Amino acid sequence: MKKITILVLFVVLLNSLATGQISNDSIIIKKGAFGGSEFHQNNKRLTMSQLVKILKPNELAYKDIKSAQTGNTFAAILGGAGGFLIGYTLGTSIGGGESNWAVAGIGAGLIVAAIPIGSSANKKAISAVNKYNEGLKTISFLDKTEWKIAYTDNGIGLLVSF
């Protein structure tokens, strides 16, 4: 009776380990505004910092997402500064002041420079999420586990090989 109890507990434990990594853990990539991407997990939209935390256990994905986070931050700073310079110049012009259109040109240049940096960061983030999702498929050691009912010296038993 003791052997059967231990066997049942062992099978229950292995079953819980086998289902520990479910498909809901994967991250879904959706098209976002202005050619960007949105990342969703369990029907919740993820921010870049949430992505970094989720992808941390996967070394390859984490390296890519950190690079994407840096590029995304840099693009946002450039784009914001460019938008401010253009807005300041337009506001001065509308308000009747003397406008310096060279400043607006610098702002436009900053925005143009931010576009490829943001696009590169988006591609790196997609690559990182794809690496993470691929890693989910092979994360369990039970993927290669074989279960057999076999006859042993002590009688019939469950044979598990890794």
Task: Give a short synopsis of this structure.
The chain is of the alpha+beta class and 162 residues long. The protein has helices at 2-18, 48-55, 59-94, 101-137, and strands spanning 28-31, 37-41, 44-46, 146-152, 155-161.
Count the helices. How many?
4
Low-confidence stretches: 19-23
Q: What characteristic shape results from the CA principal axes?
A: rod-shaped
Q: How much helical structure, as a percent, in the residues?
A: 55-70%
Protein structure class: alpha+beta
Q: Can you give the mean pLDDT?
A: 83
Q: Give me the side-by-side strand order of the main sheet.
A: 1-2-3
Order of helices and strands: HEEEHHHEE
Tally of DSSP β-strands:
5
Provide structural commentary.
By secondary structure, the chain is of the alpha+beta class. It has a domain of 102 residues. Helices cover 60% and strands 16% of the residues. It is built from four helices and five strands, in the order αβββαααββ. The strands form two sheets. It has a three-stranded antiparallel sheet. Strands 4-5 form a two-stranded antiparallel sheet. Strand 2 and strand 3 form a beta hairpin. The chain is rod-shaped and about 95 Å long. 14% of the residues are buried.
Features of this protein?
single chain; 162 residues; alpha+beta; two-stranded antiparallel ribbon; 4 helices; 5 strands; 60% helix; rod-shaped
Topology:
Elements: H1 2-18, E1 28-31, E2 37-41, E3 44-46, H2 48-55, H3 59-94, H4 101-137, E4 146-152, E5 155-161
Antiparallel strand pairs: 1-2, 2-3, 4-5
Helix pairs in contact: 2-3, 3-4
